[in-house]
Design brief:
- This protein starts with a strand and ends with a helix.
- The protein contains 15 helices and seven strands.
- A hairpin with a 5-residue loop joins strand 2 and strand 3.
- The protein is α+β, with helices and mostly antiparallel strands.
- The structure holds a DNA duplex.
Length: about 290
DNA sequence: ACCCAGGGTCGTC
DNA sequence: GACGACCCTGGG
């Protein structure tokens, strides 16, 4: 395989930092020159901005243009989406100003399932390290610019890992969940191809809940980040925090019912709740970093 | 040294 | 439905 290049014009709704740093993905890292490199499926890609262009380059398992348009969801009009959401209220408007270049990626379903099982009661730096170790041990190597990258393992590849193997990679109590989920998918007790056909989000969430380690929050992340279900609204500690600050104003944020937050989001943001969630999450988290 | 929190889920009461 | 426990790591 040789290196391919794809170039598009710069646009407001494409900012690499916003896209890769808003918590939806774990395998993109910034380079010294400010560009980002990441691995997804059998692709290793570099994304860099010039004065007027966005340049994608790397090793791809197929045509780089098709792969980028699909993965970065380049045919969805984010300016139109932002216009609708900004009209909801000033809070959302402010959060959009902060992360105007966010796009929701269309990531691999299998990788997203395992990644977000690992995310449970965990922090992002550690999640990223664990996923890298899994890939280095069970994935396949790909070289780009003198560096070796590893694909995220397929179901078959990861099914070779025992619970103890996973524990040794630092997964902690999530080892058994990842192992058992892998087996369920391998045996097609949960058929990933058929999941895509379920149009109703609540039904789809129920089906995902059959996988060990996949509760409501993880299921919502899977649907949003790999299946373009923009109507779901994953509620984690940060989103709970920001929704309480902006709207609910409860003394004890932990006591708020998750269903209350979700129905509030549905009422305010409708079928774009998931995208609103990303603006709010990014806003709150970045603010927290600099504080 | 100790405590707390991190993109939650699961088993038990 | 509510409560704790849970493996591990980094930061106060």
């Amino acid at each position: 395989m040789n290196e391919q290049v794809y170039v598009i014009d710069k646009m407001k709704s494409f900012n690499p930092k916003h896209i890769f740093d808003c918590g939806q993905c774990f395998r993109w890292n910034e380079n010294e020159d400010g560009s980002y490199t990441g691995v997804f499926k059998d692709n290793v890609l570099n994304v860099r901005e010039t004065d007027e262009k966005i340049v994608f380059s790397g090793i791809c398992g197929g045509n780089i243009k098709d792969i980028c348009r699909d993965y970065f969801d380049l045919d969805t009009d984010y300016e139109a989406i932002k216009k609708v959401l900004a009209n909801v209220d000033d809070n959302v408007k402010e959060s959009i100003k902060y992360g105007e270049g966010i796009r929701i990626l269309k990531q691999d379903l299998w990788e997203t399932i395992i990644s977000f099982i690992i995310s449970a009661n965990n922090n992002i730096p550690r999640i990223k390290k664990i996923i890298e170790r899994i890939s280095a041990k069970y994935g396949k190597p790909i070289c780009l610019n003198g560096n070796t990258y590893y694909t995220f393992p397929t179901v078959e590849e990861l099914s070779k890992a025992s619970v103890q193997d996973l524990r040794d990679l630092g997964l902690g109590f999530r080892d058994k969940r990842v192992h058992d989920t892998t087996q369920l998918i391998l045996n097609k007790e949960v058929d990933l191809d058929k999941l895509q056909e379920i149009t109703d989000s609540d039904k789809l969430r129920e089906e995902l809940n059959k996988l060990p380690g996949v509760g409501d929050k993880v299921a919502d992340c899977i649907m949003l980040f790999s299946m373009k279900r923009f109507d779901v609204f994953p509620v984690d500690v940060w989103v709970r925090r920001v929704m309480n600050e902006l709207y609910i104003k409860s003394e004890d944020e932990k006591k708020i019912d998750k269903k209350q937050i979700r129905s509030l989001a549905e009422k305010k943001y409708g079928n774009l709740a998931g995208i609103a969630q990303q603006y709010l999450f990014y806003w709150k988290r970045e603010e927290n970093k600099t504080a």
